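new request in #modeling-help
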Amino acid sequence: MDPVFAFLALLTTAGAVAAVSLRNLVHCALCLVVAFAGLAALYLQLNAQFIGFAQILVYVGAVAILIVFAILLTRGSEPGNQPILSSSWQAGLGVAVLVLGALGVAVASSFVRYYPVSPAPQPTVRELGEQLMTNYVLPLEVIGLLLTAAMIGAVIIAMHEKQGPR
Amino acid sequence: MTPLHQYLFLSALLFGVGLAGALTRRNAIIVLIGIELMLNAANLNFIAFWRFSRHPELATGLMFVLFSIGIAAAEAAVGLALIIAIYRHYRTANLDQFDSMKG
Amino acid sequence: MNLSLSILEFAVIGAGLAILLADLWTPVPQKRNLGYAAAAAVGLIFLASMLMQAAAPAYAFEKMYVLDGLALFFKRFFLFAAVIVLVMSVEFADRIEAGIAEYYALIMFALAGMMFAASANDFILVFVSLELITVTFYVLTSFQRGRLHSLEAGVKYLILGALASAFLVYGIALVFGVANTTNFGELMGSARVASARPVFLLGLLLVLVGLGFKIAAFPFQIWAPDVYQGSPAPTTAFLAVGSKAAGFILLLRVLFSAVPEITVNWTKLLMVIAGMTILYGNLCAIPQRNLKRLLGYSSIAHAGYMLLGVAAMNSAGSSAILYYLGAYLFTVLAAFTVICVVMRGVEGDDISAVAGLHQRSPLLAASLSLAMVSLAGIPPLAGFFGKFLLLKAVVEKGATQPGCYWLIAVAILGVVISLYYYLGVVRAIYWSKGSAELSDIKVSWPIQVSLYACIAAMFYLGLFPDRLVNIAMEAVKALKL
């Protein structure tokens, strides 16, 4: 196994496991940042530079920070001595293990020892931009509409009631 | 160079970890973190498949990941806004305490 | 590239943005009337869609977008549903604290998402349009943010919806990895080769999980009762009609247009899911006292009936789904319009709130009763003929698949169970005593118009089904059946 890959994979997995299992919520969010950064490094390793930087910008820069804000704003929800797992956690864990097993078996029986057949592609930002504005312009516009709707929605939902109708 | 199946195993592992987190934790924010991990696992799949495909000049995989990143951010924004709004009522973010509807 | 194909969607988006802008210059007391403007705009677009023809499938955006008979059928369906839902929202406006114009605009954005979904011929468009619908609905469900039920419905829908999207994306990733394409046309060519890889089948299965969530099929139905109960009534109506139909059009496209060779091996799986969904929805609906929650369970049962048409895997089954959806549209919208008007100031939406409704407003009482009778599938209303067509399609299939007869038995059992709770509502309207409130209910004229339209359509479709059946048969020619 490639040592760089092994290191990044270990880092990402450890970050992910910690992010969903620690008791302290802020620690969870910080471990999530580690997992996101590990994935970004893997994308760079796979020659997808632009996606790697987008991952850092959006996930580490926006999503993780948003999560930290939400944790701080809901500070009273820190578990304290309460259990952190839901009452039906055994069933949930069972489903997760089952799905993981199915995925593992399917991958193992479908893709063993595949190596890249073509030389490493170097898509420039210009090429990606051109593709976005030509072949993929329709999904791009739908995403634009989605972001507008989400922005309006997030403001409306989180707005304080006391402010009354605008 | 790392073979494809190692990336796929890593991605499956991340998906499983995210799913386990989403299904077992009580806190809504951690559940959302788990779901974000699952989406990231799918993105890793797309990038790996794109890199190992016979026609990497077709950027479908990359494009899908770009769209997926955008959508995940929108989902997280709406989700966290909702959690903050409901926290004002319940003073908790634990999912199993949101049980005002029965039947 | 042929932009003119997607003119309807862009018109809807433009109208939605115009409503958002108009909100800035509209004085506060007038804001609710923007809903009538929105309904009029969508109504005009609906009429314009009647002028469009789609004899042969036309493609746009690198074959990502297809306009064929099936897509056009569903676009008209969504547009009509949105008109009634918008009229309903105006009635609901005083129960929303702030941002009513945004409520109208978000309904129109969700509508645009559904119309894109109707034309999706590529997993990328499937994903983004489905997410547009889902994310908009997260907001629409929790729009009454002063009400605990509404917020709770929003959180539940969000958590389970996001989980379902994660499955969908992962499934698409696996399908893409094997077939190296996301386009339905190209997938059809490579499906035979790809089906040798278990990863491909697993990916398709995960995609089905994501779509099963949208239509509330067993075992992904757990969100439906809570969300139906907690959401504002117009949202619930749009969720029951629009979002479910969007799930079905995508299911039909994926199963019968992208991977028809693989789908034929899944008859048994689909049959089991259909049967379980019917039984679950009908059995759980029996003890319900909350009218919206009752309709939530009933919508699960109806998803089960429509899955019968998918499991039949013939064009009779698919066209029966289209007919059934048409009948379901008018029936459910009539029911929710009445709920929206009657449940003003009633906390809990309890069935007792409709007690003695025939003295307060004969029109509302008649609409709700007819809707219940049609949902139960009693002739001569539209719902009966829909169930008849679905069962007929399954009987045709029964020649090759003996298990089908069991499925028919389950479906008929479900119909019998459902008579109990649907007629319970009718009984509450006409024969129950002890209602405290007996004042007349004023029904505004737009609501009257939409109720009369729904009643007329229920009778028309029940008595003269041929026309819609022919349209549905024409539309499903787009599928590879």
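bot summary: Chain A has two domains: 1-77, 122-166.
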